[in-house]
Design a protein that fits this description.
238 residues; 48% helix; 5-stranded parallel sheet; 3-stranded parallel sheet; alpha/beta
Length: 238
């Protein structure tokens, strides 16, 4: 599937029927999700980091792109890649490495050092450069971190989102936005709205009811799987 086909999955969706994208952390988990019938996947940077033995945000870029490439090779469905804040790469190089890995989309966050929000206009200008370098070859999911590192005011998230959409973002992802502000965000943000669910049908259904049009899981699925492995290990040890 091309980026254009992946982009089309985000649009013209019926109310309460979001695009649900499981988050594989390695080739094996990607195959499980693809075999279950999901039309596309979205890697979580924290889940991939954990699978490689790194803390969130500490994965060397070369290892992250290599992990994405292994996931892409393992499945026939499109894969979007969480590449954090772009690793300081120039837009052209970032796009080149994503396309070399086989990704058809990417998450790009508006914070740096997992601690500080970027200037929104500066980030929008950078996103515009990424869009120019990618053309239509990547679906850009612009993560908005105001609920993580900022004021938590929905108006701030909406203002940033408008800049990012104007710069060429296909989708906006207000990470950790409370469910109760979702209708406000939905009203103020044009286009697809990504929200993070817990690894349960109830969590997905709740976000769908409140207006999410795309749902991802961050590292939730990887952590859920490791919890199951931990329980198994404890039972075997006992």
């Amino acid at each position: 599937m091309t980026a254009s086909s992946f982009r089309a999955l985000h649009h013209d969706r019926a109310p309460g029927d979001p695009l649900v994208l499981p988050g594989p952390w390695d080739a094996g988990s990607a195959r499980v999700f693809a075999d279950a019938g999901f039309p596309a996947l979205a890697t979580p940077s924290a889940g991939v980091a954990a699978s490689l033995g790194y803390e969130d945000g500490a994965t060397p870029p070369a290892e992250m792109f290599a992990a994405v490439a292994r996931i892409v090779r393992a499945v026939s469905v499109p894969v979007s890649a969480d590449v954090e804040d772009g690793y300081g790469l120039a837009p052209g190089e970032l796009v080149e490495r994503l396309l070399e890995a086989g990704a058809v989309g990417c998450n790009l966050e508006d914070s740096e050092g997992h601690a500080t929000l970027k200037d929104p206009q500066r980030h929008a200008d950078w996103l515009a450069e990424v869009r120019a370098a990618a053309g239509d070859a990547l679906v850009i999911n612009a993560r908005v971190d105001t609920f993580l590192f900022g004021s938590g005011d929905p108006a701030d998230a909406i203002a940033r989102a408008k800049l990012y959409v104007a710069a060429g973002a296909d989708c906006v992802y207000p990470l950790l936005a409370p469910t109760e502000v979702l209708p406000t965000l939905r009203e103020g943000i044009t286009g697809p709205l990504n929200m993070a669910a817990g690894p349960s049908p109830d969590s997905v259904a709740e976000l769908a009811r409140h207006g999410a049009t795309r749902i991802t899981f961050g590292p939730g699925m990887q952590r859920y799987a490791m919890g199951a492995v931990s329980d198994l290990a404890a039972n075997l040890r006992a």
